[in-house]
Design goal:
This protein has about 525 residues and is mainly β. It contains 1 helix and 41 strands. A 9-stranded mixed beta sheet has the order 34-35-36-39-1-38-37-40-41, covered by helices on one side. Strands 13, 14, 15, 16, 17 and 18 form a 6-stranded antiparallel beta sheet that branches. A 5-stranded mixed beta sheet has the order 2-30-29-28-27, with no helix packed on it. The two termini are about 20 Å apart.
Amino acid sequence: MPELSPFLGRVRWSVHRLLVTALLLASSTATPVRSQTVDSIKARPGAVALRSIFSLRGNGAGAAVASLWDLNEDGRVEFAVMELSTERWKIFGIDSAHVVRQLWQRQSWSPAPLFHGDFRGDGSRMLVQVRERDTAILGTLFYLDFFAVDSSRIADAPSMTWTSRSPGIRLIACTFQVADLDLDGSDELIVASVASNRDGVSHRGGEIWIYRGGPDFQIDTPSVVIRDSIHNGSDYDLHIGRVDADEYPDLVCVTRIDTRIRWGGRDMARLDRQVDRSLGLVGPFLHLLDADGDRRADWLWSAEDVGFSLHLSSTGKNPRTRAFDRIDADRRFLGGGTNTFVLGPLNDSANRFEMFGVNSARTDGIDYDFSGGADGPDAVYDAWNTGYMKISTPLGDVDGNGWRDLLCGNSDGQGSATVFAGGPYIPRDSMPVSAIQDIAVGSHRDAITIWPNPAHDVVHIAWRGDLSRMPARFAVHDLLGRLVAHGNADVMRGEVLWNCDQRPAGAYLLSIYDARSAIIATATIIKR
């Protein structure tokens, strides 16, 4: 019935104009009245299944995954997946027609993720690929290839290459990060190594090499070298986040022997002078995230057989003195899982509260995901998926709906990489087009979506995550101007429901308000 949709649209618009006019006249001549009962418009209850919008399977896909930026300058970020069996990194993007396109690929000999940074502080980001080469005498050597990006095109050859071996010095087992440590607008390159060798003498303490960003960014000589004196037991995991009250990122190093903190500041050179805190914590795995929305790092520890625990920065405990051990935790989850993942703000349009996921052999291949909030997460999971992720990286908005997304990988078996969509699920793939109504607001044609319309029992109302004025309150009136349903928006959901099954058939006016009670949009809902 291809000709039915425009007809229904004209009927819907005519009814909507008549209904709005009638309500305006009624409101100007009489006191608004309520019907005998008023329904509640509520956030969708219960946990939701994360929805896959991209999947790559086979060839060992998902051995590594990476979040990129808006390479195409089309308002959607790109992402990268490594295929282990083909030893290739592949970059993908999703266009406005929701078609997945491969944009770039390159041979790789390392499962370390691609990364990127604005190292010169001029807005021109560079893509960095890690290579590894095994040698009989020197062991594994690491290389970083820096690719310039111009007019959405990645250069065919690197413009410069860093190596873990320099005259007389060799770093062992390197990991790489990018952060603006001194907050000058340019990113630093940070290299962390488990150990080093200088002129044939091994040093079993970890090292951190920092290459200062700026107009004179170079990779020949590190600006700051941090050498840990303690034997790290073959593990040296570096985490970067804003732990204390100032604005500067701090360094947290987790080893099998100790967990150490170095407080950041404008003067990066002080980082190599001393360890500011030695916590004495060993063994568990650590993630830093912002689960309570205060722009400071919360600590998510996980350890086999004891579950996982969360230390929230918003509880008022001083990060320069608190213990950060399990007794000191603000949330403790017994059992449950041993693998934890940072998922990003999948269900928060303000991008304040990050979610985290957990899985293990005990969860039967299901990942359980917990939402953040002003008081941190509670003990009830808010989402789940059956992908059993091994690695994950939060993404920006991949599919153009204004909500941030998530990329997961699992190289077990044939391998798989999956992008899960953030925000509410709109059933465009399973419901007739005529039953889904998009409402335009500003430059967005699909700012607010209502389905099904006409409805029999339940009406769904969802909205984009990037609106300049977000929905805060909803009201539904009948033809006589009586209030029949109302409710407030939950920013953690992006979707509300109206159970209209007890309402008589007819036309109803939905009004959507922002936080200042100004109208964002109106729509007519037909109840059958």
